[in-house]
Each structure stands twice: as C-alpha cells, then as structure tokens.
C-alpha cells in the first residue's frame, strides 16, 4: 500500500491545515488533529481519483527523509496518509450549469488543486454529510 506524507500545520486562532508536498495545491483543514487527518485522507482520495479520471499520472510518494530535507516542510508535523487501494469506479455524467457558476467552480478548483470532477465530488460529499 502506498502512503503519501501530509504535513499538518497549526497557526494561532486557526484550524489545523494540511498539505501534501508531493501534490502541490492539495490542501485541506480540520478542527482538530483527528479531523485534519480524516480530511487529509478524503482530499488525497479525491485528488488521486481526479488524476485517474483525467488520465494524468499519479506521482510516486516521496520518502519521509526527502520531504523533511526541505526547510519549508520542517514546521509541519508529518503524518502518513494511505492512498486508496480500491479503484473507485467513476461514472461519466452530463450536467447543466449556468456558465458563471461553472466558471466559478473551475476557478476555485484550479486555485485549490482540484480537478472539476474532484471538487464537485468533494462539495457533494460535504453537503450530504451536513
């Protein structure tokens, strides 16, 4: 099983932020450490699924030593997040959205390291869970 290194950061008066050095732009946050770890697993799964759907290569995970060798990573707490082992079957669908909403979705997804499909899946899961 492959594991990716997530770095958890905490600033005063903020949630726990999580980033993946091997996957620039993939970020998430949690209200506590357990929530941050759970959100990291979800973000990783969605991102890897999005890469697969888009036919893009999935990068190999770096070693812990390699990640921590970078000075910019040393202020985070490293945790290993397992990559999903089961291939999630993706289904292609057609949806109709107003052009301005689609533009906002694409802009947000790009700024936060998601594909359009990955962002919409994450948004749907959050809405369903709420």
Automatic annotation (TrEMBL):
<dbReference type="Pfam" id="PF15919">
    <property type="entry name" value="HicB_lk_antitox"/>
</dbReference>
<feature type="domain" description="HicB-like antitoxin of toxin-antitoxin system">
    <location>
        <begin position="4"/>
        <end position="124"/>
    </location>
</feature>
<dbReference type="InterPro" id="IPR010985">
    <property type="entry name" value="Ribbon_hlx_hlx"/>
</dbReference>
<dbReference type="InterPro" id="IPR031807">
    <property type="entry name" value="HicB-like"/>
</dbReference>
<dbReference type="InterPro" id="IPR013321">
    <property type="entry name" value="Arc_rbn_hlx_hlx"/>
</dbReference>
<protein>
    <submittedName>
        <fullName>HicB family protein</fullName>
    </submittedName>
</protein>
<dbReference type="InterPro" id="IPR051404">
    <property type="entry name" value="TA_system_antitoxin"/>
</dbReference>
<dbReference type="InterPro" id="IPR035069">
    <property type="entry name" value="TTHA1013/TTHA0281-like"/>
</dbReference>
């Amino acid at each position: 099983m492959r594991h990716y290194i997530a770095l958890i950061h905490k600033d005063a008066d903020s949630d726990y932020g999580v980033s993946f050095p091997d996957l620039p732009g993939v970020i998430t946050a949690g209200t506590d450490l357990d929530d941050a770890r759970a959100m990291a697993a979800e973000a990783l799964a969605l991102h890897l699924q999005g890469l697969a759907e888009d036919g893009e290569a999935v990068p190999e995970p770096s070693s812990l030593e390699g990640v921590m060798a970078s000075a910019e990573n040393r202020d985070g707490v490293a945790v290993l997040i397992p990559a999903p082992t089961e291939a999630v079957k993706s289904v292609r669908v057609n949806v109709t959205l107003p052009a301005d909403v689609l533009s906002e979705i694409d802009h947000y997804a790009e700024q936060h390291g998601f594909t359009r499909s990955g962002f919409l899946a994450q948004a749907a899961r959050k809405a369903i869970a709420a």
